[in-house]
Design brief:
Blueprint lengths: L4 H23 L4 E4 L2 E4 L5 H11 L15 E4 L2 E6 L2 E6 L27
Antiparallel strand pairs: 1-2, 3-4, 4-5
Length: about 120
């Protein structure tokens, strides 16, 4: 994200968005979640209506542009989310650029190290 001040700026900028938008999401029973500058939300209205809202948000500041992906399945943080006819399913997501961080079983690590490995 850049400098340590970037988090504060992201929170200030997103406050305007969240103040009105999240209230609307809550009233319609939709989900909205944010971690720093990553947002995940559900939307049951038209895709065009959502694109209009997001495009309008991109006019707030010339140097800040929201990028969005509208899809039935997508990664959010370390989770891959899929909408299967209204049922939300999840699986572990690894970014393509992430290097494997699995400790080889033949290493000299104590055996309790391997108990928490995701299978």
């Amino acid at each position: 994200m850049g400098s340590s001040f970037t988090l504060t700026l992201a929170n200030i900028f997103m406050w305007k968005w969240e103040k009105e938008f999240v209230r609307r999401q809550d009233m319609t029973g939709e989900f909205y979640g944010r971690y720093i500058d990553d947002i995940f939300m559900t939307w049951n209205k038209s895709e065009k209506a959502l694109q209009d809202i997001l495009d309008e948000a991109n006019t707030w500041h010339p140097n800040i542009k929201l990028e969005y992906k509208i899809s039935r399945s997508l990664p959010f943080l370390d989770v891959f989310l899929t909408n299967n006819h209204g049922i939300l399913s999840t699986s572990v997501y690894h970014k393509p650029s992430a290097e494997p961080s699995v400790v080889p079983f033949i290493s000299e690590h104590p055996s309790h190290t391997f108990v928490n490995i995701i299978k």
